[in-house]
């Protein structure tokens, strides 16, 4: 019997899943890791800014309380997205992200239910400007979806961000 070894993409997406377990959002547990030259150079999860109270500490989701649908009015959320935190954490450590790949795993908070962990428009813009090459995301069907940043920028040059075919929320 021959042992089947998981791929690097499965390996890194599994690590992003574990990072997401630190999330403090009532709605989603999302983890992101950034890899460059086959090394993890940064991680991030959905959570309140450092030294502030999270939704878990408050005991409720502000956006739920205000009846804001998923994918809307992010400025009213207490949390910083996992992708943003991974980029910020690299900056805090003085680590370049140029040429790296980001892995994003998401699940419904408190459930064993994988979601399409596609970045929102704000995160997509940050990811493009950070100089990453690929984004590998978990999907609701238990697989993964890979995006090449060149395709995003080409698509946005020809259309617009609102025409983006893989939108979160």
TrEMBL record:
<dbReference type="Pfam" id="PF00383">
    <property type="entry name" value="dCMP_cyt_deam_1"/>
</dbReference>
<dbReference type="GO" id="GO:0008270">
    <property type="term" value="F:zinc ion binding"/>
</dbReference>
<protein>
    <recommendedName>
        <fullName>CMP/dCMP-type deaminase domain-containing protein</fullName>
    </recommendedName>
</protein>
<keyword id="KW-0479">Metal-binding</keyword>
<keyword id="KW-0862">Zinc</keyword>
<dbReference type="GO" id="GO:0005737">
    <property type="term" value="C:cytoplasm"/>
</dbReference>
<dbReference type="InterPro" id="IPR015517">
    <property type="entry name" value="dCMP_deaminase-rel"/>
</dbReference>
<dbReference type="GO" id="GO:0006220">
    <property type="term" value="P:pyrimidine nucleotide metabolic process"/>
</dbReference>
<dbReference type="InterPro" id="IPR016192">
    <property type="entry name" value="APOBEC/CMP_deaminase_Zn-bd"/>
</dbReference>
<dbReference type="GO" id="GO:0004132">
    <property type="term" value="F:dCMP deaminase activity"/>
</dbReference>
<dbReference type="InterPro" id="IPR035105">
    <property type="entry name" value="Deoxycytidylate_deaminase_dom"/>
</dbReference>
<keyword id="KW-0378">Hydrolase</keyword>
<comment type="similarity">
    <text>Belongs to the cytidine and deoxycytidylate deaminase family.</text>
</comment>
<dbReference type="InterPro" id="IPR016193">
    <property type="entry name" value="Cytidine_deaminase-like"/>
</dbReference>
<feature type="domain" description="CMP/dCMP-type deaminase">
    <location>
        <begin position="7"/>
        <end position="160"/>
    </location>
</feature>
<dbReference type="InterPro" id="IPR002125">
    <property type="entry name" value="CMP_dCMP_dom"/>
</dbReference>
<dbReference type="InterPro" id="IPR016473">
    <property type="entry name" value="dCMP_deaminase"/>
</dbReference>
């Amino acid at each position: 019997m021959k042992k089947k070894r998981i791929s690097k993409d499965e390996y890194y997406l599994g690590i992003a899943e574990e990072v997401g377990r630190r999330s403090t959002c009532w709605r989603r547990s999302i983890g992101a890791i950034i890899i460059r030259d086959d090394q993890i150079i940064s991680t991030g999860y959905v959570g309140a800014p450092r030294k502030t109270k999270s939704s878990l500490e408050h005991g409720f989701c502000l956006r739920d309380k205000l009846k804001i649908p998923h994918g809307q009015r992010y400025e009213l959320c207490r949390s910083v997205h996992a992708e943003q935190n991974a980029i910020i954490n690299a900056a805090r450590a003085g680590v370049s992200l140029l040429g790296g790949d980001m892995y994003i795993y998401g699940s419904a908070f408190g459930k064993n239910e994988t979601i399409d962990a596609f970045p929102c428009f704000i995160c997509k813009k940050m990811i493009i400007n950070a100089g990453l090459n690929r984004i590998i995301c978990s999907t609701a069907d238990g697989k993964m979806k890979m995006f090449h940043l060149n395709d995003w920028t080409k698509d946005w040059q020809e259309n617009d961000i609102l025409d983006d075919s893989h939108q979160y929320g």
